[in-house]
Design a protein that fits this description.
The chain has 150 residues and is of the alpha+beta class. The protein has 2 domains: 77 residues, Alpha-Beta Plaits (2-Layer Sandwich); 63 residues, no CATH class. It is built from 5 helices and 6 strands. It has a 4-stranded antiparallel beta sheet, with helices on one face. A two-stranded antiparallel sheet has the order 5-6. A hairpin with a 3-residue loop joins strand 5 and strand 6. Helix 3 runs antiparallel to helix 5. It starts with a strand and ends with a helix.
Length: 150
């Protein structure tokens, strides 16, 4: 998966646009890094904007910002996408994702808990009576099947 992000930066100690040679130096340096697919710098207006396409499993966004700071651009910072500029949107997406995971695990886990805590005490013969020949009780078979989903 390739992710696209933007990083805004200013030259050290000034609020001027960069020269073409600086633009080429940044793009050449970033393109040699692992995980960077493409890097392009826009020097037409302030702040200078770096648009980078990268693989998040190989390099993090924090590493990219730190790399820009290492190149001498101390005012480098991440510019969020317009749709997710509000932290409340990001937070609500994360909460929804983990809530859905929790509910799915709970739905799968409930039958296991019922088998372990209720059925074993209410109907003990279900726990020991073999289902398939004399090999495995139905109780263990059902728990094994349900546990594979988690």
């Amino acid at each position: 998966m390739i992710k696209t992000s933007r990083i805004a930066f200013y030259p050290e100690g000034s609020k001027q646009t960069l020269a073409e040679s600086d633009k080429n130096r940044i793009e050449a340096h970033l393109s040699t890094m692992d995980g960077i697919v493409t890097a392009s710098v826009n020097i037409k207006k302030l702040p200078n904007m770096l648009t980078v396409h990268f693989r998040p499993n190989q390099i993090s966004l924090r590493s990219l910002v730190d790399e820009m700071k290492g190149l001498g651009f101390k005012d480098a910072y991440y510019v969020p996408d317009t749709g997710k500029a509000d932290i409340r949107v990001t937070l609500s997406e994360e909460v929804a994702k983990y809530r859905n995971r929790f509910l799915m695990c709970l739905i799968i886990q409930l039958p296991i808990w019922i088998l372990i805590w209720v059925i074993a005490y209410v109907k003990p013969e279900f726990v020991i009576k073999p289902l398939i020949g004399n090999v495995m009780p139905a109780y263990l078979l059902i728990i094994a099947i349900l546990s594979t989903f988690i």
